[in-house]
Design brief:
Mean pLDDT: 88
Order of helices and strands: EHEHHEHEHHEHEHEHEHHHHH
Distance between the termini: 47 Å
Strand content: 5-15%
Largest sheet: 8 strands, parallel
CATH class of the largest domain: Alpha Beta
Strand order of the largest sheet: 1-8-7-6-5-4-3-2
Number of domains: 2
Oligomer: single chain
């Protein structure tokens, strides 16, 4: 795999860039549990150029996180090139271009998945960024996107995505991630154990892994498959069915960073790792808390960590009370004590 020569093994698992989730503390947790490649949260090219402090914070990473990439989004080639030069000064291993985010606030600016409807501009952005920096540039696309004022059949959509992937390859992009989930899907899965109750997530039938296989056959650069990876079996099945070079895990890692070591073990040995013990869970959660407090400070750190804790506790025995208590806590000492007491009780 020539994505990162001699650094990233083939058939490895990447942690996806996720707004509000894949921050520095969470990336460290996932790296220590086997994630091969890490990405920043989404970084706005316009925000970088305006020197917004919040946006600049997304560029922070440490040596332990390498190989590390910064994911940029924007709608103008010149702006993206200028932002890429700013990013390159922080010396990440690569820059990733977001052509797949369906969030309304991103799409309405003409960025993210909106660019899938404008292949010429998408290609111009890719070429501008590749020309602007000396580090590798990668891209991420979706397998499907709603095209304004046009009805398309599945085959036509696949042909359009293949054309976009080929344009990216011809622009000098070094690898393409294909997020194989249909945009705009809001049905509930029958299995809600992976997300908080009532949250809308894509229905399995719309996870179109076949699109990954078609794009893999159409281009020579590495293809990373993304979408529907909830456990090690999913990762192996995606690799087997699509021929992709690596997999990318997004929401499947929330509250379950062990998924990376589980994927690695299954691919290397053919056997499954046992689930983490109560002690192992407690250790990771407390480490995540400590890293978050150290990075953000106590007040903001507690607020940030509360995004993660419900996912760590989801499905665990008698966790409802702890979730309720910790949702109201504002001091780190009490939060730490409540978590320790909960897991100590489970071990008895």
């Amino acid at each position: 795999m020539d994505y990162f020569p001699d650094i990233v093994p083939a058939h490895s698992a990447f942690l996806a860039p996720m707004a509000g989730i894949s921050d520095h503390p969470f990336r460290l947790i996932c790296k220590r549990l086997g994630a091969s490649v890490l990405f920043s949260e989404f970084v706005s090219a316009d925000g970088l150029i305006r020197e917004e402090q919040r946006v600049r914070q997304y560029l922070h990473f440490c040596r332990e996180e390498r190989p590390f990439g910064v994911q940029l989004f924007g709608s103008e080639p010149a702006t993206m090139a200028k932002a890429a030069r700013i990013v390159a000064a922080y010396q990440p291993d690569f820059i990733d271009l977001n052509f797949g985010c369906p969030a309304k606030k991103v799409v309405k600016t003409g960025a993210g998945a909106a660019l899938l409807s404008n292949p010429d501009r998408l290609q111009a952005i890719a070429e501008a960024v590749v020309d602007a920096v000396s580090i590798p540039v990668t891209g991420k696309i979706r397998s499907r996107w709603k095209i304004p004022n046009r009805k398309t059949l599945t085959g036509q959509v696949d042909e359009m995505m293949i054309d976009i992937a080929q344009r990216l390859e011809n622009s000098g992009i070094r690898a393409v991630t294909v997020h194989a989930v249909a945009s705009g899907t809001t049905q509930l899965r029958s299995d809600q154990s992976k997300e908080t109750p009532g949250q809308k997530i894509p229905y399995p039938n719309n996870i179109r892994w076949a699109a990954i296989a078609k794009i893999k056959k159409a281009i020579r650069i590495p293809v990373i498959g993304n979408g529907g990876i909830w456990n090690a079996n999913d990762a192996k099945r995606m690799l087997d069915e699509t021929g992709c070079d690596a997999v990318m895990v997004a929401r499947g890692a929330r509250g379950n960073p062990w998924i990376f070591s589980q994927i690695s073990h299954l691919l290397c040995t053919g056997h499954h790792l046992p689930p983490p013990t109560w002690e192992e869970r407690k250790k990771v959660i407390l480490t995540h808390l400590a890293l978050t407090l150290d990075f953000y400070g106590e007040s903001q750190g507690i607020r940030v960590f509360r995004r993660h804790l419900p996912f760590y506790l989801k499905g665990l025995p008698r966790s409802t009370s702890l979730r309720s208590k910790t949702g109201q806590l504002n001091d780190a000492t009490t939060l730490l004590k409540e978590i320790e007491e909960y897991f100590d009780a489970l071990e008895q």
